[in-house]
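In response to the reviewer comment on reproducibility (Comment 2.3), we provide here a single inverse folding case reported in full, input and output, so that an independent group could reproduce the run without further information from us. The structure tokens appear first.
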């Protein structure tokens, strides 16, 4: 009789054991598990990770390479670069209060803009960019209070952003531990156009037509002439890819927010995952395909609306 009871409850026991292992494996993955490009935690487990968790807590290396001195996936070439999280170098940002920054793209690599991460603690405060330099801030983790001019304050949460025209007085104070990705460039003035302050969030931006392509596209800034760059949010479902291998005069700075895939740059093919940064020089051939079990989302800088002769 006892053996019959054990057999009766064995399927239930096995179900509970498998479910526990699945959730445990997912939790281990969130904390930086052993896979190189492992899938996101199962939605069956309660209390999933915050949005863009993988971008700020990426898997740095395969388990068998974690103790290998000098290991990195980062690659820097004449017309492109892949900058991966294990090679980030953080240091105090000039004039910021209690903030560490890591410059990922800068003019020293051949870019005409900078792209950097800013890690702020509770109560940290930003500094202004140099004269005539515009700034776009995107919140990856945490939240900030953005004060512009006299008395105007905006609260920016994860997936929110702000475009700050050159020479506009502003400050950002973090409300908790916060990670920002920031783009800055010297504004290319033209005629009498003047860009406006913009505060928004990704989910409020409409999906745009992408003729001949399957990915979903949102643009965070207006496409009008006052703006000399834009930030695109591009979503790919697993198995989707760019139909066109692009070659153009525009520069790109890219941060992979979610997912994983293969990026072609020139004649090189790179496995990429959340947290990776890519710089693309003018006219470098480029192509992407999404892999894995979850969507890819990346944030893409692109210079626009200006004559390349100027």
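Designed residues, in position order:
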């Amino acid at each position: 009789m006892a053996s019959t009871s054990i057999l009766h409850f064995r399927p239930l026991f096995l179900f509970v054991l498998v479910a526990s292992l699945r959730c445990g494996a997912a939790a281990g993955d969130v904390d930086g598990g052993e896979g190189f490009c492992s899938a996101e935690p199962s939605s069956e487990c309660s209390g999933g990770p915050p949005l863009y968790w993988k971008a700020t807590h990426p898997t740095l290396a395969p388990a068998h390479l974690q103790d290998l001195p000098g290991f990195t996936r980062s690659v820097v070439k004449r017309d492109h670069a892949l900058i991966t999280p294990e090679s980030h170098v953080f240091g105090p940002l000039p004039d910021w209060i209690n903030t560490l920054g890591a410059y990922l793209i800068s003019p020293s690599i051949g870019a005409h803009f900078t792209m950097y991460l800013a890690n702020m603690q509770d109560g940290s405060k930003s500094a202004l960019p140099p004269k005539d330099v515009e700034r776009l801030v995107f919140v990856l983790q945490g939240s900030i209070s953005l004060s512009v001019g006299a008395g105007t304050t905006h609260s920016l949460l994860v997936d929110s952003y702000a475009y700050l025209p050159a020479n506009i007085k502003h400050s950002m104070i973090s409300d908790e531990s916060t990670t920002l990705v920031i783009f800055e460039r010297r504004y290319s003035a033209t005629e009498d156009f003047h860009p406006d302050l913009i505060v928004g969030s990704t989910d409020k931006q409409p999906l745009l037509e992408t003729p001949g392509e399957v990915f979903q596209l949102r643009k965070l800034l207006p496409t009008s002439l006052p703006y000399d760059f834009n930030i695109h949010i591009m979503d790919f479902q697993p198995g989707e890819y760019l139909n066109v291998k692009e070659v153009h005069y525009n520069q790109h700075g890219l941060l992979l927010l979610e997912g994983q895939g293969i990026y072609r740059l020139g004649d090189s093919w790179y496995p990429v995952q959340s947290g990776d940064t890519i710089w693309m020089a003018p006219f470098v051939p480029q192509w992407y395909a999404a892999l894995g079990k979850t969507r890819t989302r990346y944030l893409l800088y692109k210079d626009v609306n200006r004559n390349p002769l100027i």
